[in-house]
Structures are given as structure tokens and as C-alpha cells.
Design brief:
Length: about 375
């Protein structure tokens, strides 16, 4: 994924870091409802909800992701930062590589727990205001922050465009899919990421496969068997005190909306301005400018987000309980397994080639 800022801050979050340095497999796997892996070499041909905690693709890609360590992440980040500095110099800008040596990334925390389970919810909620990949370490700071803050708006726009591409202020780059991402338009960060993690992986053949995989997941989302399961879940959540939720996923959306409201409140009222511009792109650019030039806003935003965390955890725990009580998870797993087995059968040769390329890339990195 591109390294464009997903919120107005000069400080990198661990989640964004993970998305930057893992290959396309991670993007696809994280787009699926990732569950704990069984450790088997291949999935059973007819898994059932009671004895197969992960669906076939979750097992396949989850096993690959488990091979990554925090050291792998920081090593790749260092390589990328050095390449970014060279690229930015070519564009006429100074860029000091960010030092990630003190960052401690624990991928196992985000992969060992089943996303959406009660255990995950009790610790991380939905993982929106929390970070399941953080294990401590020093806070990463951007040594370029003061340099960029001192620029005029026009200079800053040019700098960030060179660094992240024309879409550097997209309102929600975290939602960008494999299908919508082109490293060639993602500035120096996209170029560096491609050189470090994409060799042999993001060619046209595998990109098309990943797009098909995401479309398959979307088709599973629309399966009619989930309609009644969602209705039952919504009724359970209403009994738990959560109104206005129609389907699984609405809880996450509600918390995400709270975060965006907090962002607008903090950055939209700064500098005497009552609101941000109505155009989403312009609003994101203005918020980022304010975050860079007024560091106190980042602390205010972090405080506002931290206040949301208890509500997020409470809702996520209720969500997990209702999914278990109504049998939603069993229905969901059954539907996903059916779609994924059909996908694996249809694309067996392509998937075998893709996994071989991933394994080769992993070995070359060791």
C-alpha cells in the first residue's frame, strides 16, 4: 500500500508501517476476514465451522504472514527510507530517512488472535483506535517535520506530491485496494516500496489474481444466506443497547465515523476556522497542513481518539458475543469456505505460481 499519510500527523503508526512493507499478499489477506491458522500444509477439502477455525484462503495467506518478524519489517523500512531519500534528492528536495531502528513490531499479536473474536475485542476492540501490531519500543518521529512545516503551502504541496504522488491527501487511503493502487503514481514512497517489496510479486498476472480474489470476497459478502444472519445479529445488538446497526460491519463503521468526527473537530476548528473545506481532498490537504504547522493538534487528536477506545472495545465485545449467540460466524465461515474452495479450484495454477513467487521473495530477504 502507498505510504501516504492517512491522518494529519508527522508520526508513523505501526499499522501503516506494516501495510507499507509487507507484499501484496498482506493487503489481500488483511482485506479478508483473517482468522487464526491451523498450521496444516493445506486446508481440508470440506471444512466445517466447528472444526476449521480458518477458511482456506485465510490459512494459506495467514501461514505466509506468520513467517514475517518485526526485524523483517524494520529492515525493509530502512531500505525503503534510503531509496526515498535518493528519489527526493532527484526531485530537488531534502529528505532525511526516518529512523525505524527503535520500532518494535509484533506481528504475532495481530495474527495469532482471531480478528472479531471476543479475545481480540477485549484487547483491541475493532483495531480502529488501537493497534494490534504494537509491542512497545521508541516512538518514531519524522526528522523532516520541521523542514516541511516551514514551507509555504505551495512548497509543501509540491514536496508531499513528490513524496507520495498526486493523491497524497486522499481522504481515506487506508481503504484503497490492490485494484486501485499504482506504485508509479505514488511518488518516491511508491517507487521505493516497489523496489523493496514488489519484485516478482506485483506483475500483471498476480495483480489480476488479487483483484479476482477481492471480487470473490465481495460476492461472498452479498450471499443471501447472510441476510437472515445479519438480521439476527442486529436484533441482538439492539438488545445490547446498540441501535441503528443493520449488518455485521456497521459497528466498525460507527467507530470509524467517530474518529473522523474527532478529526474534523480538532483540525477543523484550528486557527479560527469553524470548518474544513467541503471538498474531501481539499479538507484532507488543509488538515495535514495544520497538523504539520501546529504540532499541538496531533496531541489533541490522539487524546480525542483515546477517549473513543473504551466505547470501541465495549461495542466490539458485544458484537463478538452477538455473532456467537446468533450463529453468524458459523454461517459466515460456511459461505466463505464455499466461495474460497471454488476460487482455489478455478485458479489453482495461478495461486501455485503466486505462492512460489512469495516464497522466493521471502527467501531472498533472509
Amino acid at each position: 500500500m502507498p505510504a501516504r499519510p492517512s491522518r494529519p500527523t508527522a508520526r508513523a503508526t505501526t499499522r501503516a508501517v506494516v501495510r507499507r512493507v509487507l507484499p501484496a499478499a498482506a493487503v489481500v489477506a488483511l482485506a479478508l476476514p483473517l482468522a487464526a491458522c491451523t498450521g496444516d500444509d493445506e486446508p481440508e477439502p470440506t471444512p466445517t465451522p466447528s472444526d476449521e477455525p480458518a477458511t482456506p484462503l485465510e490459512t494459506l495467506l495467514g501461514d505466509y504472514l506468520k513467517e514475517w518478524s518485526g526485524e523483517d519489517v524494520t529492515r525493509r523500512l530502512t531500505e525503503m527510507e534510503d531509496l526515498v531519500a535518493v528519489c527526493m534528492a532527484e526531485q530537488g528536495f531534502e529528505y532525511t530517512p526516518v529512523d525505524y531502528s527503535g520500532l518494535e513490531v509484533d506481528l504475532s499479536a495481530g495474527l495469532d488472535l482471531v480478528y472479531g473474536s471476543e479475545d481480540f475485542a477485549q484487547q483491541f476492540g475493532y483495531g480502529i483506535t488501537t493497534d494490534p501490531f504494537t509491542s512497545g519500543g521508541e516512538e518514531v518521529t519524522d526528522p523532516n517535520a520541521e523542514y516541511v512545516a516551514a514551507m509555504s503551502d505551495a512548497e509543501r504541496d509540491a514536496y508531499l506530491t513528490a513524496l507520495h504522488g498526486e493523491g497524497w491527501a486522499d481522504p481515506d487511503p487506508a481503504d484503497e485496494t490492490v485494484e486501485g493502487y499504482d506504485w508509479q503514481t505514488a511518488g518516491c514512497s511508491g517507487r521505493a516500496q516497489h523496489e523493496v517489496v514488489a519484485t516478482g510479486i506485483e506483475d500483471e498476472q498476480f495483480a489480476a489474481l488479487q483483484e479476482e480474489m477481492l471480487r470473490m470476497a465481495e460476492a461472498a459478502d452479498g450471499d443471501p444466506r447472510l441476510a437472515q444472519a445479519n438480521t439476527d445479529w442486529a436484533a441482538c445488538m439492539l438488545d445490547a443497547g446498540y441501535d441503528g446497526l443493520a449488518k455485521v460491519g456497521d459497528g466498525e463503521a460507527a467507530i470509524a465515523a467517530e474518529v473522523e468526527a474527532a478529526r474534523a473537530e480538532v483540525y477543523g476548528t484550528a486557527g479560527g476556522s469553524a470548518t474544513l473545506p467541503t471538498d474531501p481532498g481539499a479538507a484532507a490537504r488543509e488538515a495535514l497542513r495544520r497538523g504539520l504547522t501546529e504540532p499541538s493538534l496531533e496531541a489533541a487528536f490522539d487524546e480525542a481518539v483515546a477517549a473513543i477506545t473504551p466505547r470501541e472495545i465495549e461495542m466490539a465485545v458485544a458484537d463478538a458475543g452477538c455473532r456467537a449467540e446468533t450463529g453468524y460466524d458459523d454461517v459466515r465461515r460456511s459461505v466463505d469456505t464455499q466461495y474460497q474452495l471454488a476460487f482455489l479450484a478455478e485458479h489453482a495454477d495461478e495461486i501455485q505460481s503466486w505462492m512460489a513467487a512469495l516464497a522466493a521473495d521471502r527467501e531472498a530477504d533472509e
